[in-house]
Design brief:
The protein has 299 residues and is α+β, with helices and mostly antiparallel strands. Helix content is 56%, strand content 10%. The chain has a four-stranded antiparallel sheet, with helices on both faces. A two-stranded antiparallel sheet has the order 2-3.
């Protein structure tokens, strides 16, 4: 595997106006009214109705979720590893969300005067028009962007070092990169294992012997995972590929309605999926007890 050829780093940047503001005057008033210290609490007021931000907040939240789902952990500075195999899908998802946010921002600004008028009624004497940004300013307050850069290699750093101990430094860098890659692949095992475990847990019964609530997302999340994991499997880890294929064949294709009380409820299917999920969990437990080394295939 050539890391610089097979992957890149991607960082996500989301900016948003919270629509909240600390009101010192109101905080001081509350403290005096209750004979409390001025440092005992803070009054943060909502400048606009919560509903005004609902669509924007949902899109930004989805952007974060999609970003993490379609990339691998890398460092603690915000960069994540994006495989070449998943590059087109990542770009398609994030560009779509950026375009959606632009449309929602335009609607938000179009309705801004209405939201401010509603806030005037909601806040009463706490309302101060000077605390509201202009419509022009709001154009820059909501955005989604991402930055893609190359994965630095050891030689890149070595060339900038003024030391005779370059071989040791190079080995340390390469070892650190290998550990990061191993953690990245381990993250895929963890994602699959947690999704399968949630399915298993929700297929249990309550204390009265009744099936627990089983939501569509239990299966849709599994389907999303078995779709993206092969594109993020940067080592071509055969054990991971096999487990992913088993999850796809044994769980992802099941319709949620067949697993819960409904017109198409199938107790036999529920029992089978529960057994399959438990069996898969045993296989995942084997991985976490002794993870394969990077570049090695599981036996």
């Amino acid at each position: 595997m050539d890391l610089n050829r097979d992957a890149m780093l991607v960082s996500l940047h989301i900016s948003a106006w919270s629509g909240r503001l600390y009101d010192r005057e109101a905080s001081d008033h509350v403290a005096v009214h209750h004979d409390a210290s001025a440092s005992a609490g803070r009054y943060n007021k909502r400048l606009l109705p919560k509903a005004a931000f609902a669509a924007l907040t949902a899109t930004m939240s989805e952007a974060r979720t999609r970003h993490y789902a379609n990339s691998l952990p890398w460092d603690d500075k915000g960069s994540r590893l994006l495989t070449v195999a998943n590059y087109e899908r990542y770009i398609e998802l994030m560009d779509g969300l950026r375009e959606r946010l632009v449309r929602q921002r335009a609607r938000f600004i179009e309705d801004y005067d209405h939201y401010v008028a509603q806030a005037r009624l909601d806040l009463g004497k706490l309302f101060r028009i000077e605390e509201y940004p202009s419509k022009e300013t709001l154009q820059d307050r909501f955005s989604i962007s991402y930055r893609i850069t190359a994965v630095p290699d050891a030689d890149h750093f070595i060339a900038r070092l003024a030391t005779d101990d370059t071989e040791r430094v190079k080995r340390d860098i390469e070892r650190h990169v290998e550990e990061q890659l191993h953690d990245a692949v381990g993250d895929l095992y963890r994602r699959l294992a947690e999704a399968v475990e949630r399915v298993s847990e929700r297929l249990d019964e309550d204390e009265n012997g009744k099936p627990l609530v089983f939501r569509d997302t239990m299966i849709s999340n599994i389907r999303d995972l078995v779709d993206v994991v092969p594109r993020l499997n940067i080592f071509g880890d055969q054990r991971l590929a096999s487990l992913c294929e088993q999850v796809k064949d044994r769980i992802a294709g099941v319709e949620p309605d067949s697993l819960r009380p409904s017109r198409t409820f199938d107790p036999a299917a529920r029992d089978r999926v529960k057994r399959d999920a438990d069996e898969l969990m045993e296989q995942f437990a084997g991985y976490f007890s002794r993870p394969p080394q990077p570049g090695q295939e599981a036996a």
